[in-house]
Design a protein that fits this description.
Elements: H1 2-5, H2 13-26, E1 38-39, E2 42-43, H3 45-58, H4 63-83, H5 93-109, H6 112-115, H7 122-141, H8 145-166, H9 173-178
Antiparallel strand pairs: 1-2
Length: 179
Amino acid sequence: LASELWNPIPSWDMWVWISRDLFKYFDGNYSFSDLFRLHNEHRILTTRLVLFADALFDGGSGVISVTISYISLGIVALILSVSGKGGRGERSADQFLLFAYLLGVLWGTAQDPSLSLPFQVQFPLVHAFAAVFIYMANVGLNSTGNKKMSSYIIASASYVGALLSLGSGFLLVIPAIYL
């Protein structure tokens, strides 16, 4: 499916990335700190990394970004299905059906024209990082010892991932307080 949805014609913010990032990279003037530079009001490190991978390893076809988008939405579906039974790790046909249903809903509602634009990978990424953050924070609350610490480390890394995917990770504070 990802190979069918790619879009070879840049549009909107993609032109900004090409002119400010890709051309600067090919001119040899791109620095590590440029990855963290604001794009409008957002930090989009993860988007830049995916777009660079797509440009350098797949000729800028957009297939890598669409694939990452689908994988990210799959992670969200998996976390929601695992959390659907209280997050206690039960395995059942119901849990698999919930995962399949959520996968269909998430993939089905990802609008083809939007999802096929490589720059839009930031939206599934921020949701995947947010889902991992909320899930691991909950695991940490219900754990002790090393499992608690490792859960909080993964949750913190996911929080940073959300911040660097769209720069709006501060909104994760509300679900964290709810936990």
